[in-house]
Amino acid sequence: MKIWDNLIDDIGKLIPTGVECEIKMINSTESLTRFANSHIHQNVEEELTDIFLTFHADGKTTNLNLNITSMGSIEDIIKKALSEIGNNPKDSTWPGLTSKENSFNGYKDISPDDPDIRAQKVKEFIEQGQTFNGAGYCSSNVSNVFVWNTNGLNSSDTATSAFLDGIFRSETSAGSSHIGNKILSDINAQKVGKEAFSITKESQNPEDIDPGVYEVILGPDAVSTILVFLSVYGFNAKSKVDGTSPIEINVEQFDEKINLEDDPHKEGALNFKIDASGAPKKKIEIITNGIPKNYFHTRRTSSELNQSNTFHEMFGWGDSFGGLGTNLYLKPGDISKEEMISNVKKGIYINEFWYCRVLDPITQVVTGLNRNGSYLIENGKVTKPVGRLRFTQSFMSSLGQGNVLSVGSDNRFADSEFGEGILNVPMLHLKEFNFTGGVSG
Amino acid sequence: MFNEINKSIDAAISSGAQYADARILISKSRDISSKDGELEDFSNSENMGLGIRALVGSSWGFYATYDLSDESLREAGKKAYLIAKASSKVPGKDFPLADVPIVKDEYVTPHEQNPFKVSTTDQIDLIVSSTHEMKKIGSSRAFGRLNFWDTEKWFASSQGHEIYQNIIESGGGISSLSIGDGETQIRSYPQSFGEYRTGGWEVIQSFKFLDHVDRISEESKRLLTSPQCPEGTRDLILEGSQLALQIHESVGHAIELDRILGWEAAYAGTSHLELSKLNEHKYGSPLMNIVADATLPGALATFKYDDEGTPAQRVDIVKEGIWTGVLTGRDSAAIAGVNPGGMVRADGYGRLPMVRMTNVGLLPGDSSLDEIISSTDDGVYMETNRSWSIDDLRLNFQFGCEVGWLVKNGKITDMVKNPTYTGITPNFWGSMDMLAGEDEWVFWGTPNCGKGQPSQIGHTGHPASPARFKNVRIGVRG
Questions:
Q1: Most B CBs within 10 Å, among A360, A364, A369, A395, to test the B interface
Q2: Does domain B2-224 have CATH number 3.30.2290.10?
Q3: What ipTM did this prediction achieve?
Q4: Which of A82, B260, B400, B406 suits a disulfide with B387, CB 3.0-4.6 Å?
């Protein structure tokens, strides 16, 4: 890409000897068509080129983040950064730059999608809702990332993604569905619309039930929320460094049916094959037969914990966040949704969680609510829709030994509290889940 | 700069948009974080670009670019129009924009010391020495953070607005984390995630972090051996920053008109409020007086014009417990038949402006925290937020705080850990029976309010003083 080639040519010539420098660039076009009350009301597109520079000299580090328009003279930027660096204390955990041998060339010149295609997808979704009120979004993104450093590394990659996420609302209910794909035209809007319609219809006139401990079946978006919390607060090695992670490697902490891997090379994976250090990512095991196998490391956390780097530095996030897997797959089981329901004596189906927050990171006790489709299941049959429930439940225990009764056979990309497209998961049947409040509080 | 913006606006209008407005922003930020007496992160950021929105029929089209060349600016205007036009495949009802004064004006946040002109050594020293002290005293982990923003905005519209604003915001905080056997306890100052205001370096100096390191470090350690917050129904006394978040979640979001109209239904949710009950619905007790006031000097959401060029103003939201007002934009106000309140902002040039809380605060009462405690027979006083969750109608909430103190027969007795409380919005606000006065009224700021798709982070203000709530369910645990 011309902007990138010019940038590294110019900077490469101006870095003084003895200064380590790393440059990252994110160049993307993010487009999102938003609808509510069954019509498109907001339709946006942003084209951005952000540059992230890190300088390390005399044992000190400074970071400078700019977009291409605000850069001005590259010579001035380098001078400013090197003059500011003198004010900083020593960086005792500087992990160094990625070596030249890790260079990876994955850049592809891809044009953004036309807004008419997104509008058509929205139309197809809304048509499935009949008289129900539709709301949601259809997005499509093209993102290019580049990393260069004074070790001679020069890496790049391109990722595309498209999502359709929508709900229908009746007077008394709502139902949602979600789909993700690398290519917008491959999104099956009618299928998503039909699912959301069906849930909305079946959830009408919900009844309140008493809080308590119930068996649950969790839809993919609810499963995704549990796993993303465990990823950010547990498997993120920064939380281990900070002493707040509940995850212990090679200790049986989860049910043996839980198998989670991060695989950027899997067919259809939506996120980058390199991390923000410029190194290529590999497929790694996160949980195998219920046993944690790896944290998500950055250069800094792998150095601090003296463990192998897993290359999970995030583009656009600083060292204070840590690392996160972004191509996560929970291994499917062999049981259909219908079979799962037929195995429940008395339990609740939860389509989606909402507004989950951690009470204590080390126990992973989280509170949140259900929304967009919940039903009571009795003696293997869905008997009635249920209203709002608040849970207060350890997410560690929810996937703990003996608590996962079965894993669904169908995976899909799911939404979560930390964004879409990073988790591809099936449904789960859990033995116990603690609901601590109902409609009346 | 206005000439540049108008090239884009002219292109959108000549393409067929019925209205267009645009902003060029130069946004600077600085993040400094420290852990255990070391500098963890030091980053300066700066970006510049244009965002233009065009109205065609029933939809906004928005396009943002970093490229400010003439050709790109004109192209951006055309693209905003074309994006809006694409929406006509799934049209709604056309809507007008509420009238606002067409002004040409300038505004700079009053400040003493621009934080970007203060020595970075001083800034780093302050936060590193704070975490160093806490670590030395015995915190398992000591965290500190400073954040500064300097945002220059040029706004123009096809109706003739030309407004320049320079908004300066500063904030930060410190936390002591104590790690025990299978649990962590944390204490923060001035509040969890830090305290944020409009203003310069003087905001940070006013916090006097080093005066508080001993207390929060000691309290976080003591919490490890303290008993659990009891379960049951008792009187609840909330410290100001926790009450600020309570206002944010259970009032601020509920009164956003875009939510009430269903525009946020799929993501942030809607609201339990129905417009037909404006001026009738009982939101809380007669002590409850909420205003949205973007003119409060020094509060985090203080400016002179919003991102639609509407003047900042004070709007009554709840008067003596009755719901009287909403947060509006020019589009939603026109649809609902209410006045536009100057409450639309975006978190950068790349995002579509949307309804945002300004300084939504609870006006002070005539009591004091001391009086509230001395008149409480059996209650818990909770300080500093630790977790927050509320349903998508903004009714059913549960909050956790960093520390609780039992109150018995008018006196604080024991410290308790993991305090939580839960409730339903109108019942909870209806139970407020004592409210501290102006001496304890603080302009708390929330710098991390998420809303919209694509996601935006908003800076909102919530003036509040401590208050008491009767018969609240506390001590919910997993």
A1: A360
A2: yes
A3: 0.94
A4: B400
